[in-house]
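for the recovery benchmark. tokens below, seq after
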């Protein structure tokens, strides 16, 4: 009898090497009989499990072994099944010890590329020294040719651990979405910086091994990821959904960028820059970037494989990548802080060549203009760390996408800790220029999970007002901010910077729909209070907004 590849996987004996591990190979054996159900999973897998970077034939699985539970040469297995009871196994493999090197901080990333079926949901677990992890769920992509009618994403950003609880992550775990997109600031490099952390939650305070309030090297970054990943509500989300991630600035340093003139990492607020009036030590700054990239690659379940011997960040890790959801949508994930020209051309060429109905750009910082006023000569921008600081590049990209005939462009954005819906233009200088030639697409911003939004920043900034002013109950003007923002920025349709949560973005053949969820960040329960504050649709072929609720 001839066996299919799937049947061969199920029946092959010991000794067959299969390319399952990103940092090693795996050997096929049977593992079910070796599970000791009396040991809690947390004793071995303290950070639980996660999955990421799906493809039609695979996904990346992630876990970490507690160092205290590690034993050299102990059995280590990964199982993937069609059912939660693991009766119908599709992968049952032994992972060799060298797949968990010490330099990866006991983390493991397993690539299942080539072993799964398209557009399927699976259950998976790890088994180390007879102890099974909690069960995770993962999802593969449809094939590029598949006729997909709907895809639904949960969208997240900016989850400062010290500034609130992860109820939003727990509530998103319950949602019926296909994948979760994380647009960056998965961690914050600082743990007590008054610019970002007001520390109103004493049980969320923690210290770094380097003794500073900001990460100074690899061990600090690793410690931050371990702290974030220890949160049970975050674990609940990552166990439930497959994640597609990009970084923003705080995975490395606030307002960071690549300094092309000096060929080093730019981190204006970091101690490595401030300690030297000439702009800091280039070697220290470059190493800081390499350390942050290494920690990200260890703790985020992605298919991006580091070049361990590289000494330049551009050579160490290439994070921009795309994902295709049948004929319906293609998602381009970019990093606006590092690669510049090569990535820009990759994005432009990829979108121009994409045959899908919707072109989706996973973008860290606000792409549109956000003006707070105007002088006789120029607009006054709120944040030049966003695309407002790179107006030529923004106009160039939008112009070329328009010239290439790209339609149904949707940009998904984070960073500002704000809900927003905005039209994308080539030229923002003329307020009323909303003609067809100038409008390229739409942009939806997801709010912060916990990070300080404009209301919180303003409230803390005015917390020292006199008692007399407090007694008069002076209204905080940020409550009128949506009206003011829309008056100054007529391309912005919806704006709210008073709440926290997440968004869900659905694509189908008729429209793209953005649903903004608010979740109380002060509630540490899995059932934290949530509500829908706005639902907006953009019809296919027409970059406009229709308020649904």
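predicted aa per position
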């Amino acid at each position: 009898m001839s066996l299919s590849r799937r049947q061969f996987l199920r029946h092959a004996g010991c000794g067959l090497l299969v390319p399952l591990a990103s940092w090693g190979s795996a050997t096929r054996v049977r593992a079910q009989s070796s599970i000791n159900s009396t040991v809690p999973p947390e004793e071995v897998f303290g950070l639980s499990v996660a999955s990421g970077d799906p493809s039609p034939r695979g996904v990346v699985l992630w876990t970490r072994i507690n160092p205290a539970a590690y034993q050299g040469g102990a059995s280590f297995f990964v199982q993937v099944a069609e059912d939660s009871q693991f009766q119908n196994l599709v992968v049952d493999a032994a992972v060799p010890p060298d797949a968990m090197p010490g330099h990866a901080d006991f983390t493991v990333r397993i690539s299942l590329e080539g072993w799964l079926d398209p557009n399927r949901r699976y259950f998976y677990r790890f088994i180390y020294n007879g102890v099974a992890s909690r069960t995770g769920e993962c999802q593969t992509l449809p094939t590029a040719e598949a006729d997909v009618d709907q895809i639904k994403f949960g969208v997240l950003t900016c989850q400062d651990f010290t500034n609130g609880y992860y109820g939003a992550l727990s509530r998103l775990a319950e949602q019926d979405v296909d994948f979760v997109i994380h647009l960056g600031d998965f961690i914050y490099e600082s743990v007590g910086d008054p610019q970002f952390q007001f520390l109103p939650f004493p049980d969320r305070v923690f210290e770094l091994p380097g003794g500073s309030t900001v990460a100074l090297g690899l061990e600090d970054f690793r410690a931050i990821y371990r702290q974030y990943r220890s949160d049970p509500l975050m674990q609940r989300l990552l166990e439930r959904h497959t994640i597609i991630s990009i970084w923003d600035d705080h995975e490395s340093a606030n307002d960071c960028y690549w300094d092309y003139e000096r060929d080093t990492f730019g981190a204006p607020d970091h101690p490595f820059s401030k300690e030297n009036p000439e702009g800091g030590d280039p070697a220290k700054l470059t190493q800081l970037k390499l350390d942050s990239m290494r920690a990200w690659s260890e703790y985020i379940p992605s298919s991006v494989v580091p070049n361990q011997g590289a000494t330049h960040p551009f050579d160490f890790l290439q994070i921009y990548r795309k994902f295709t959801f049948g004929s319906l949508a293609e998602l381009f994930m970019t990093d606006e802080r590092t690669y510049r020209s090569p990535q820009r051309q990759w994005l432009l060429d990829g979108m121009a060549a994409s045959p899908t109905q919707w072109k989706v750009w996973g973008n860290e910082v606000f792409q549109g203009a956000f003006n707070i006023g105007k002088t006789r000569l120029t607009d006054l921008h709120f944040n030049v760390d966003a695309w407002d600081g790179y107006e030529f590049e923004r106009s160039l990209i939008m112009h070329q996408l328009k010239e290439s005939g790209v339609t149904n462009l949707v940009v998904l954005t984070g960073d500002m800790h704000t809900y927003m819906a905005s039209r994308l233009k080539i030229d923002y200088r003329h307020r009323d220029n909303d003609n067809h030639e100038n409008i390229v697409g739409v942009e939806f911003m997801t709010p912060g999970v916990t990070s300080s939004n404009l209301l919180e920043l303003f409230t803390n900034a005015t917390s020292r007002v006199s008692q007399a002013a407090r007694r008069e109950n002076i209204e905080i003007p940020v409550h009128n901010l949506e009206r003011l923002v829309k008056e100054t920025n007529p391309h912005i349709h919806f704006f709210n910077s008073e709440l926290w949560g997440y968004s869900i973005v659905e694509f189908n053949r008729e429209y793209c729909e953005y649903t903004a969820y608010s979740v109380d960040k002060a509630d540490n329960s899995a059932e934290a209070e949530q509500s829908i504050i706005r639902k907006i649709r953009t019809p296919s072929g027409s970059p406009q907004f229709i308020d649904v609720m």
